[in-house]
UniProtKB/TrEMBL annotation:
Pfam families: ROK. The keyword Kinase applies. One of its GO terms (molecular function) is kinase activity. This is Transcriptional regulator sugar kinase. SUPFAM superfamilies: Actin-like ATPase domain (SSF53067). Keywords: Kinase, Transferase. InterPro entries: ATPase_NBD, ROK. The keyword Kinase applies. Belongs to the ROK (NagC/XylR) family.
Amino acid sequence: MATRYLSIDIGGTNIKYALMDGAGKILEKGTEPTPNGGLLQFMAMLTEVVNRYADQIKGVAVAAPGKVGVDHRTIHFGGALPFLDGLDLRKALAGVFDGPIVVENDGKAAALAELWLGNLKGIQNGAAIVLGTGIGGGVILDGRLLYGSHQQAGEFSFMSSHYDEPQFIKAAAGSTGSAVRMVRTIGTVAQLADPGDGHAVFELVNAQKEPAWTIFKEFAQRIAALILSIQAVVDVDRYVIGGGISAQPIVVTQINQAYSDLLKENEIIEKTLTRPEIVTAKFQNDANLFGALYSYLLFMDK
C-alpha cells in the first residue's frame, strides 16, 4: 500500500480534510463545520478527524489561518479563529497521533499547491493571490516559497496606498480588495434576497448590468493595482488568481484588462516593468489540501 497522509484545511466556516498519497492524489475527503465555541470544542472536532485516520497514515499536514511559526507547528493569532493563537498542534494532538504533524499558513499553502501541481509548476518566479474575505497568497522566488525573516511574506491584505491614519487600514488591500465584500455590495444594491449569493451576483456581472458591472470593474482595478505594486518589488513571471470567485472566467479577464489600462496610463511604468502573466489558479476549493501536503513533504525532506 502506498504511503498515505491526512491533509487538513482549517477555515473559518469549514474544516476540510483528505486522505492523500505522496503524489497528491485524493483518496478520500470530507468536510466538517468549524466549531465556533472556542478552543476546546475545536480540538474535540480536530481530534475526532485525526483519530479516524490515525492508523492509516504516516503524517498529518495542516493549513491554518494566521501566522505559522518557523517550527511549522505553532499558530500565531489565528486570523478568523483567534482562539488558535499560540496553539502548538503537534503538542495538542500528541495523544492522538504520534507521527509527524506539519502546519502551514493557508495563503502559503495555496501558493505551494500551485507550485507543486498547479499553474506555477515549472515557474521559477511567481506568485499566488487568493481572493476571499481578505487577500492571501504567497511569493515564489527561485523556485521556492518566500517566507521572509518573520514567516510573514505574502500577507497581501496589509498592503495599502494610504499612509495617513485612519485611512491606512480602511485602504488596506484586504478591505478594498475583499471579494466577499464586493459580492455583498453588489448583492445589497441589487436587492438580492441573499446579498452574499455569488452565483446571482455574477449573473449580473457577466451581463454587465449596472451598477454591478461598475462595482466589479472597480474591484478588478484594485487587484490589478495590487499586482502592479507587488511586481515592482519582486518582478515575477506569473501570477495565479485563486479563491472561490476565480472560477468565474470574467475575474481574471477583467483583472488583465485593468492591468493593461494601468500601463496605458503610465508610460514610464509600461516601459520599465515587464508585464507578467495573470492567469487563473488550477486549484480552488481544495488548494490548501494540496499545499499543506506539499509543505509537509518539503519540511520532512529537510
